[in-house]
Amino acid sequence: MTKPPLTLYLAAPRGFCAGVDRAIKIVEMALEKWGAPVYVRHEIVHNKFVVDGLRAKGAVFVEELDECPTDRPVIFSAHGVPKSVPAEAERRQMVYVDATCPLVSKVHIEAERHAENGLQIIMIGHRGHPETIGTMGQLPEGEVLLVETVADVADVLVRDPERLAFVTQTTLSVDDTKDIIAALQARFPAIVSPHKEDICYATTNRQEAVKAVSPMADALLVVGAPNSSNSRRLVEVAAKAGCGYAQLVQRSGDIDWRALDGIRSVAISAGASAPELLVNEVIDAFRDRYDVTVEVVETAVEHVEFKVPRVLRQPA
Ligand code: 2E6
Ligand code: F3S
Predict the structure, then answer these.
(1) Which range marks the domain in which residue 119 is found?
(2) Closest atom, ligand 1, to C-alpha of 23
(3) What residues bind isopentenyl diphosphate, as annotated (predicted)?
(4) Are 119 and 163 in contact (CB under 8 A)?
(5) For residue 310, is it within any domain?
(6) Domain identity same for 59 and 12
(7) CA 213 to ligand 2 centroid distance, Å
(8) Mutate to test the pocket of ligand 1, among 41, 48, 273 (most ligand atoms within 8 A of CB)
(9) Separation of 77 CA from ligand 1 center, angstroms?
(10) Whose Cα sits closest to atom 6 in ligand 2?
(11) How do residues 25-82 score in pLDDT, each as one tens digit?
(12) pTM, to two decimals
């Protein structure tokens, strides 16, 4: 039986960013250095396939530090942790490695610097997300106020409108965040902005690529996990860019083939925590059903790399 033709547009960049790559390496190197088990506080990155793979090698994933024994190393996830977490690890005399992405740490440092200068901080982020909890937890309760939407800006109660700064989560929608920043600046003209954009290069580049590819395709699939903020933003960006059908899939098994009936083209992207192996699995699933032509749509080239902490580069 002949297969129907289908063009697959692969958005580039997609998939792993430098912070995810580093965080996974940290767990792998910790397992090599100290042997199993090594504890990891929270999913090292928001991807079940990655987490399951590391678990098979001896990593034990927990949500809180008090679930870890004191005589085994613990790694903090790429999303960052409140100050209280390393403080507690030190109090318990635990060996710990911080896999917080350096671009998240940059926001932490920025928040601290603003507080030292007497500024109260407004964080633009998603309530309950580990990165937001970690960034807000760099400072005492009440020093960082959270806004999630433009509407929240009208309600936020600040100490002094003249002494304010804002920071953001690294994985937000670039366009939605612009609107929230505009609302903040309209209400608080003196508010201090980040030195350099807090939304990271990987988030920005993946959203740009999705924007470029969305109008070309009948449907767009983002490979990523439901708890992955940056992956979910890519689905929203595609829908806003005019893609009639945009869906998040963790693996090929999640593809709703019936919904794709009659399509001639599909665009594929992947969140910063999604391995390329899963993208290839999705492409292969299309090849099984269609006569596929692949086209890469590249809007940026990335050369970012982050070093792993020195403790892991030294022999045990
Ligand atoms: C750390 C910070 C930002 O949900 P989110 O997009 O934040 O996280 P992941 O694990 O899906 O992506 C990588 C990441 C880690 N992004
Ligand atoms: Fe870091 Fe951005 Fe990736 S903050 S972990 S480079 S998505």
Answers:
(1) 103-187
(2) 15
(3) 46, 79, 129, 228-230, 273
(4) yes
(5) no
(6) no
(7) 22
(8) 273
(9) 9
(10) 19
(11) 999 999 999 999 999 999 999 999 999 999 999 999 999 999 999 999 999 999 999 9
(12) 0.98
Residue 239 lies in a domain: yes
How many domains are contained in the chain? Answer: 3
Task: Report whether 200 belongs to an annotated binding site.
Answer: yes
309 assigned to some structural domain: no
Query: Are 118 and 128 found together in one domain?
Result: yes
Q: Which residues are catalytic?
A: 131
Domain boundary among 163, 187, 211: 187
- Tracing tokens 């958005």 back to the chain, one arrives at 11
Mean pLDDT of the chain: 97
Q: Is the CB of 107 under 6 A from ligand 2?
A: no
pLDDT tens digit sequence for 218-262 = 999 999 999 999 999 999 999 999 999 999 999 999 999 999 999
Report the C-alpha gap between 187 and 191 in whole angstroms.
Answer: 9
> Residue 88 to residues 73, 85, 92, 94: CA-CA distances in angstroms?
14, 5, 6, 9
pLDDT of residue 252: 98
Q: Checking DSSP bridges between strand 120-124 and strand 74-76, what pairing results, if any? A: unpaired
Is residue 45 within 6 Å of ligand 2 at its C-beta? no
What does the pLDDT look like over 282-306, one tens digit per residue?
Answer: 999 999 999 999 999 999 999 999 9
Q: What is the CATH number of the domain that holds 272?
A: 3.40.1010.20
Q: Is residue 180 part of a domain?
A: yes
Q: What is the CATH number of the domain that holds 28?
A: 3.40.50.11270
pLDDT band at 315; cut points 50, 70, 90: confident
Ligand 1 contact, 229 CB (< 6 A): yes
Q: Are 285 and 194 in contact (CB under 8 A)?
A: no
DSSP string, 228-280: -HHHHHHHHHHHHTT-S-EEEESSGGG--TTTTTT-SEEEEEE-TT--HHHHH
